[in-house]
Structures are given as C-alpha cells and as structure tokens.
Amino acid sequence: MRKSAIKKLMGFGTAMMVAGILAGCSTAKTESKGNAAGNTIKIGVNMELSGAAAGYGNSQKQGIQLAVKEINKKGGINVNGKKKKITLIIRDNKTSTSTSASVAAQLVNKDKVNAIVGPATTNAGTAQIPNITKAAVPSVSPSATDPNYTLQKSGKVQPYVFRACYQNNFQGSTAAKFAYTNLKAKRVAILADNSSDYGTGLAKAFKKSYKGKITASQYFQEGDKDFNAILTSFKNKKIDAIYAPGYYSEIGLIIKQARQAGINVPIIGSDGMADPKLAQIAGSKSATNVYYTTPFSTRVANQNGTAKKFMTAFKNEYNEEAPTFSALAYDSVNMIKEAIENEKSADSVKIAEGLAKIKNFDGVTGKITIDSKHNAHKPIVVETLTDGKVSAATEIK
Amino acid sequence: MQIFFQQVINGLSLGSIYALLALGYTMVYGIIKLINFAHGDIYMLGAFWGYYVINVWHFNFVLALLSAMVVCGLSGVIIEYLAYRPLRHSPRITALITAIGVSFFLENGMSYLFGSNARDFPQAVKQVNYNIGGVRISNIQLEILLTSCILMLILQLIIKRTKMGRAMRAVSVDNAAAELVGVDLNRTISFTFALGSAMAGAAGVMIGLYYNSIDPLMGLTPGIKAFVAAVVGGIGSVPGASLGGFLIGLLETLVQSIGLSAYKDAVVYVVLIVILLIRPMGIFGKNVKEKV
Question: Where would you find this protein in the cell (chain B) (predicted)?
C-alpha cells in the first residue's frame, strides 16, 4: 500500500515537473539552473518540528544548529578562498507530506536556499523531491532510510536527493547476521513499527536475510503503549530472540513490558533505539540483554576524535547526551560544507555535484562515502546494553 | 490456559483505562450533546501534572492522583467556559469543530512548552510482580483496576444519589425544562465537565505510572478508542461507558494474541461500524424517540 502511495506521489511529481518544463518554455527562462550563492550561504531546513515525528525532528534541529554555530564561529565556509557564513532558514513541515512539499517549494523558490537539510522521515522526504528537483537544489536527509528514497521510479538515482544514514536493507541484514551468528538465535519473533517505512522496511530486510526460523511477526503503531498482549503471545513460541525495529519511544516500552512478563531473551533493534531515553523509559534494570545496530556509538565515539569533540560540544550546548538523530543531522550540514569546499562554489547545482563525490568524509557517525545511489556508506556497530548502559560495541564487517 | 488468563488480565488493565476515559465522553455527551474531542488531551494534561508534582514537589502516588484530578477538573471547567459556553446556542457542528480545535491547541501547546519527546514517568510506586498459578500480575495493574472501579462507583453514586447528580440527569433529559424548575444550567454543565475531566486526569497519572512514558500526543489514540467504547456501550450511559471500555480493551488484546496485531485498530473500528448498524444506541443506550 505504502509503495503504491509513493508511486502515485512520484507519478504526480513527474506530472508537475512536465508542467514546470512546459511553463518554462512559454516564459523563456533567462536565469541559469539552480540557486546561485549570495553573500551568505543559505541552508534551508525542512523538518518535522511538530506532529508525530516531532521528537526526532527537534533532535535533528539541535544537531543542525550546533553544526552551523560552529561553522559560523570559525568565520564560515571557505568558498574558493572567500569565507562565507551560513544563514539557516528553519521551517516546520508538521510531519505531513503535503506541508513538506509546500515547505520545500517555499525554501527553494522564495528563500532561494542553496541546499536543504531534511526531512527526517521518508514520507515527508519523498514529498519534497519534485519541488527541489525542479529548482535544482540538493537535499540531505539525516534519517530517511527507505531503500527507494534516493531512486526514481525507473531505478535511476534522484540527482538532488542524498542521505546521511544507512538504508534499511543494510541495517536489517546486519541485524539478521548478528542474531544468527553472534547470538546463535535460531528462532526469532519480529515485532515491528507498522506506521513508518523505517519499521516495515527493516522487518522486511531482516526476514529476507535471516537464516533461522521466524516464529511470529507482529506489528504495532507509533504511539502504542500496551504491548502486553503481543508479548504474552510470544511466550509459548520458544523464541531465542526478538527483533524489534522501531524508535526508542515504543521499543523502550516493549523492553520494559517484555521483562515484566518474564521474557528475558535478547531484544535486537535498530538505530532508532540509540538514545539515552530508551533506558529511561525501559527502566535501567530491564534494559539488559538489549542490542541494536547503529552508526554512532557513544563508546566508539570516545576513540574517534571528531565524534568526541561533537559529544562535548553538544553537552555544553544542550546539557544532555547527544542522540543519534542529532549526530546524523550534524553530519548532514558538514557534508554540505565539504561539498561546497571541494567544488569551490556554493551554487546549488555545484553542491549537488560535490555531495555525490563525497569520499571518506570524517563524520561524527563514521567515515562516510556517498555511493552512486546517493546512500551513505559507513561502518556499522552493534551496541549491547547492560543495566541501561552501553557495555559493549561490536563492529560487524 | 495460563496464557489465556494472562491475556484476560492484560485486557482488563487496558480496558479500565479506556473505561475511565469513556466516562468523560459519555457524561458530556449526555448533558450537552457534544463529543468533546479534547477529552483525550485532558488525560495527557493529567499525566504531565503527575510527572511534574512527583518530580518537583515529591508527592506520593495518591496525592499526585488526587491533585491531578483537581487540576484536570479545573481545566475542564475552564475549557468549557472559554470554548464551549459561548457556542451553546450555535449548531452542534460548530461546537464539534471547536472541540477539535481545543484538542489541537492542547497538543501543540504542550509540545511547544515542554517539547514533543517522550519522557519517563517517575516511578512513585515500586513494582512488585505476583505469580498466581503461572499468571503474572503486578501491583500496579491491581492498583489501576481497583482505582478505576472505585472511581466508577463514586461517579455512579454522585449521579444517582446527590442533588447535583439529579440536576445532571434532569439537564440531560431536557435542559429547558430543567432550567424552568430551577436547575442552574451553567453550574450543572461546569460540574459535569469537572467530573469527566477529573476521571481523565486520574487515568493519565495511572497510565504514566503503568507504562512509564508520557508525551504530548499520548491522548490521541486512547481518546479515539475511548470514544468508540462510549458509543459501543451506549453514548450517554455511564454503566455503558464502563462496560464498553472493558470490552474494547479485551477485544484489542484478543486480536493481538491471535497474531493479528497489525489489524487491532481496524477490528475496533469494525466493531464500531457493526454496532452503529445493528444497535445504533449502543448496548445500554435507550432508544429515545423524538416527539414532534
């Protein structure tokens, strides 16, 4: 269903583009393609600041603001020998696809931004593609994980769409490998978030590459608070582990209620869980024997200079531990900076070219390389929680 | 068999929350024929109030529960006074849309003021699990069941045995006639809002304690489910709302336990449609014929 909706949207987008091109013919365009840079570099933020995904959106906003503040403090971005500061234009898409499309139009046409960071979710992200493509302004989404997000319907890559996170297939198959090989789990129950492409996509990828037996797959909705019924039904299925891809707000509750119901098997999840709030919601005693795949590990971060600096800066700025979403958003801004410096130009078309060429970029979430499909490649780790604290981080190759 | 009883316990604790919320819907509807969509958000306010007083003023659970009931009761009265009273003589659709507006206002206002992240509720009561013949039940589940039942009993007593209760029943039958015989309409309606909202506040604190997670949008889904519960039980009927709440809780648990969790909300709404088709007045509702 989701897919068909996206397809429809893309179809609509193509129609809009055709209309745009036709309109362009009659008015005889004089200006060149894209938004050229002025005295400052304008970065637009199309973000979920209210509505269902506001929790993630606001974390990302913090990461973006921190990155911009740091860059501006150093005088700005070096564009061909001249330092230019960043002006940030933040707009709320209310976690709605139609608002996301209109916010994107506003950013590229009225605000004339040179690049966009966001949105956080695949659905809102897909909705902005027609408008930014028409205006030739690139976007970097910190957390849109659907494999098809950066691709056109024909399978060709979207020229102006990038992401700073993994795509689902990679993360799901890593979790499957980890469950089967490292945890020796032969029977797994899946409990996935059904309300986002993130949860369903990960569950699908896990199912495809897991070698053991999947004894049950159940789904929940974002905002659900009661998982007792589902967990009780898992009890007589002789499971070795639970795979629960989703965000910390629900997975925290699942962990709490599973332990309370006497289910003590490992619970494996995804990077949406990598947040200190997970252990707070689950209760630190329950958050034991919990694993999740993540690009950004606070433990690994201590050995990595870039990440360590970010962690301290974030703590000084906001008085809390940096969540994964903030780290990804921070990287998104710095990827745009890298692209501008490499291309020696802050024109939107040039930024897009630069983003596509990013290699071994030293990000907070690891060394990032953008591949031909505009996905970010970086190392992946599995973090282990014991008593609510990260007790081990295993790198999966 | 153990699993079955475990599921019944799960269903009952979920259902008691829906029942408490459904009471507020049903009472307000019974009196002014308004579906108060902001009701779920009052429940959210209750949870946040509990969070605040336990964390900052170190209230114990009972005190937090009672103070949340008072605060939510007050906010219910204020909402009625500011938003619904000026619209008393407008078409019902106007009031309904206003209720949705109030709901948005509360949700986004709280998100704006306190952030939309989920936060952990302070554990004011230490959790103990009892094991009765293989069925696990926690002291918090027992507390929720018990508190809900006591609150519903008190409510029933207020409605059936007090002067205010009689006034409420009179207004729900015919408000013009009630006013003629000396019932103060505004006071009665305010009182109804206070009672319903106090129930929602209690539910909010209990949910916070039980699930340990609260956020500004937490009232959205339970609010709608409770509305369904009220309709199933017979909107306007107090025992109907309680029964409807427990029924919806058990039904949802049943659907999830047989592996159809992806359809649990769908099943609840299908039941709503079936009830509306077969018995539109609900299980306990009276079929009132309109006289011309």
Answer: Cell membrane
CB atoms within 10 A of CB B103: 21
Instruction: Convert A152-182 to b/e letters by CB count within 10 Å (16 or more is b).
Output: beeeebbbbbbbbbbbbbbbbbbbbbbbbee
**Mean pLDDT, chain B, integer:** 88
With CB atoms and an 8 Å threshold, state whether B7 touches A232: yes
- Contact check, Cβ <8 Å, A229/B117: no
Same domain assignment for residues A178 and A157: no
Q: Are residues A289 and A372 in the same domain?
A: no
Q: Rounded to whole angstroms, how far apart are CA atoms A342 and B145? A: 64
Q: Which of B120, B213, B261 sits opposite A230 (nearest CB)?
A: B261
What is the Cα–Cα distance from A166 to A194, expressed in whole angstroms?
19
Q: What is the pLDDT of residues A42-87, one digit of tens each?
A: 999 999 988 777 878 888 999 999 999 999 999 999 998 889 999 9
Answer yes or no: are the C-beta atoms of A383 and A392 closer than 8 Å.
yes
- Dihedrals phi, psi of A218, to nearest 5 degrees: -120, 160
Does position B152 have pLDDT exceeding 60, yes or no? yes
**Cβ distance of B117 and A226 shorter than 8 Å:** no
ipTM above 0.85? no
Q: Sign of torsion, CA A62 A220 A228 B203? A: positive
CA separation for the pair A115, A137 (Å, rounded): 6
* Domain of A178, in residue numbers: 168-294
Per-residue pLDDT averaged across A150-162, rounded? 91
Q: Give the total number of structural domains in chain A.
A: 2
- Mean pLDDT across A373-384: 87
Residues of A with CB under 8 A from a CB of B: 50, 52, 54-55, 58-59, 194, 216, 218-221, 223-226, 228-230, 232-233, 235-236, 248-249, 252-253, 256, 260-262, 277, 280-283
The number of distinct structural domains making up chain B is 1
Q: Cα distance from B147 to chain A (closest Cα, Å)?
A: 19
B10/chain A closest Cα distance in angstroms: 6
- Inspect the interface and report whether the beta carbons of A50 and B253 lie closer than 8 Å: no
Cβ-Cβ contacts under 8 Å, A59 against chain B: 117
Question: What per-residue confidence (pLDDT) applies to A11?
Answer: 59
Residue B94: which domain range? 19-219
CATH classification of the domain holding A247: 3.40.50.2300
Between A363 and B2, whose confidence is greater? A363
Angle, helix B139-161 to helix B2-32, in steps of 10 degrees: 30
SS (H, E, C) B254-287: HHHHCCCHHHHHHHHHHHHHHHHHHCCCCCCCCC
What 3-state class would DSSP assign to A363?
strand
pLDDT value of position A3: 52
Contact A261 B136 (CB under 8 A): yes
pLDDT of residue A26: 43
Is A353 within the bounds of a domain?
Answer: yes
CA gap A112, A100 in Å, rounded: 16
Instruction: Give A271 to chain B, closest Cα distance, Å.
Output: 17
Name the closest residue on chain A to residue B259, using Cα atoms. A218
Q: Which two tokens stand for residue A245?
A: 């891809």
